[in-house]
Amino acid sequence: MASNDRAAAPGKSGWGFPSRRDLGGADSLMRASLSAVAPGTALRDGLERILRGNTGGLIVLGMDRTVESLCTGGFVLDVEFTATRLRELCKLDGALILDKDITKILRAGVQLVPDSTIATEETGTRHRTADRVSRQVGFPVVSVSQSMRLIALYVDGQRRVLEDSAAILSRANQALATLERYKLRLDEVAGTLSALEIEDLVTVRDVTAVAQRLEMVRRIAAEIAEYVVELGTDGRLLSLQLDELIAGVEPERELVIRDYVPEPTAKRSRSVSEALAELDGLTHSELLELSTVARALGHTGAPETLDSAVSPRGYRLLAKVPRLPNTIIERLVEHFGGLQKLLAASVDDLQMVDGVGEARARSVREGLSRLAESSILERYV
C-alpha cells in the first residue's frame, strides 16, 4: 500500500519529481512532495540549514515554460544541487528554481510574479507568492519563514507545515498502538467468521463486522503510511512495523466481499468493485453503523435483516489453501457454487473440475479439512 509512496530520495538516478499533470491529483502530488522534503534528503538538509541560518527562502520544485513566464530578474545558473548551495543562494533576495529531479539549481534571485487574481488566504508576501505559484504552475513550492521559524510546503492549494521528526514519530506511534488493537480485534472477528462459515451459521451481521474492522484497519494504516512518507529515513522502522501488521488485509477485504456480495437481482445489483468503492467512500461516523456497512456491501441494511443467514461462496477459505492458483479457485467456486458443497466434496468430486488433478484434489481436500478443524478448535477451545 504505502510502498509506492515511499519514493527514493531526490537526486538518485531515475527519480523524477512529478507535476500535478503527471500524477493526476493533488493528493498524490502532496505525498510525492512530502517524500522529496522528508528527513534524510538533501533538500530537507538544505531547508533546515536555511532555517538555522535565520534567513528565509522561496523554492519552486520544477521548471517549465509556465514557471519561466513568472520569473523576472535573477541569475541563470544550471549548477548541481547541494544543500550548502541552497543555503547560500537563499541569502539573495528572490526565489530559487530547481529542476523537478532536484539535481540542479536552475535559477537564483528571481522575482516570481504569479497571477494576482488567484485566491489565497495567506498574508505574508513570501507565503502568498508560494501559494499562488503552486496553484498556477502545478509544481510544489517551499517557503521558509524567517520570522515564524517554519518550513511550509504548498501543493496545488494545499499547505503543509513540515514538522520535526520527533513530533511526527509521537503521533505515528500512537496511531500504531491503535492499529495493533484494531488488528487484534480484526483477527478475533475474522476467526469467528471462519468457524461460522464451516458450520454454515453466518449472518449478515457477522460479515459486516469483519468488513467494518477491515476498513478501519485499512484507514489507520493509510494514516500511518502518510507519517512514513513525512519521516523519510527516520520512518524505516515504522514502515517495517506497518508492513507486518497489515500483511494480507487488502486481499482479505476483497475476498470477504467476493464471498458475500449478493447475487444481482432485478431490483438490486452490486459488483465487487462497486462494493469496495462504497466502503471506501463511507465517512468515519457511517463506518461505525453496521447497517450502513451492510448497505455498502449490497444488503438492505435494515436492522431486522442483519441477523439474516448468508452463505459464503468459498473464495476466502480456498485462498488459505497453500499453492492454489486463483484460476483454480475461480473454477472450484463456479463448479460447486458454495462453501458447504466444497466442504462436502470428495477427491473424486474435486477432480471433475478442469485443471484439478488427483494430487491437487487431495491437496484441496486436506487443506479444507485442516482449516475446518483449526477454525472450530480456535472457536470452542
Automatic annotation (TrEMBL):
A Gene Ontology molecular function term for this protein is: diadenylate cyclase activity
Fetch the SUPFAM superfamilies from UniProt.
Answer: RuvA domain 2-like (SSF47781), YojJ-like (SSF143597)
Give me the residues that bind ATP, please.
G94, L112, T125, R126, H127, R128, T129
Q: What class of enzyme is it?
A: transferase
Q: Which UniProt keywords apply?
A: ATP-binding, DNA damage, DNA repair, DNA-binding, Magnesium, Nucleotide-binding, Nucleotidyltransferase, Transferase
Which Pfam family, an example, fits this chain? DAC
Which reactions are catalysed by this chain? 2 ATP = 3',3'-c-di-AMP + 2 diphosphate
Entry protein name: DNA integrity scanning protein DisA
Originating species: Streptomyces meridianus
* Species lineage: Bacteria, Bacillati, Actinomycetota, Actinomycetes, Kitasatosporales
Q: Which gene encodes it?
A: disA
